[in-house]
Amino acid sequence: MAWFRILSVAIGYGSVLFLIQCHWISSLGYLGFRIDLLLPLALHVALCLPPTSALCWCLGWGFIMDTFSGRLWGLHLGTYLVMVLLVTVASAHFELRNPFYRLLCVAICAIMQALALGGYVVIASAAPPYDPTVWVPLLARTAGILCVAPLIGWPFEQYTDQFRSV
What is the rounded distance in angstroms from the CA atom of residue 154 to the CA atom of residue 41? Predict the structure, then answer.
């Protein structure tokens, strides 16, 4: 039943990060500062929970994030699901306790988010495909996600380690 406790902690910690993202992060004026706080948490959820429980967490939070982002188009849902699948597949080949591999997984999904968001902005606004005003903020957003990923994952990892050791 340790997975149920970890899932409860993941839901609670996700709620705190969601409120921070909705109230403070989304009010920042520059798009590069509007980072996705739940993406690094999806990595740690995928590491700590069985794949089915992690997929349920990702479906729930992905749907909520897409709904509150203004348009239900699956950006968050898709990247959280890819994170769980990536961690599940990569854990068979790599030691994901290594911080480099964890950051690499977050980077892959953050770049996917940036490409999807940039593609949408280019198509919706009829901007040139290589317009730096579209891609530079998204690059800054990706770098921001990578900078906060260890800070977001560390408390969750420390707290859930006590459940796994019992």
Answer: 10
Query: Which residues lie closer than 8 Å to 43 by C-beta, 6 or more apart?
Result: 83, 87, 102, 105, 106, 149, 153
Over residues 86-100, the pLDDT tens digits come to: 999 999 998 888 999
- The more confidently predicted of residues 1 and 79 is 79
Task: Measure the CA–CA gap between 32 and 118, rounded to whole angstroms.
Answer: 12
What is the pTM assigned to this prediction?
0.90
Q: How far is CA 109 from CA 40, 65, 103, 114, 124, in A?
A: 9, 15, 10, 9, 22
Give me the domains of the chain, ranges plus CATH numbers. Answer: 2-165 (1.10.1760)
| Alpha-carbon span 36 to 21, nearest angstrom | 7
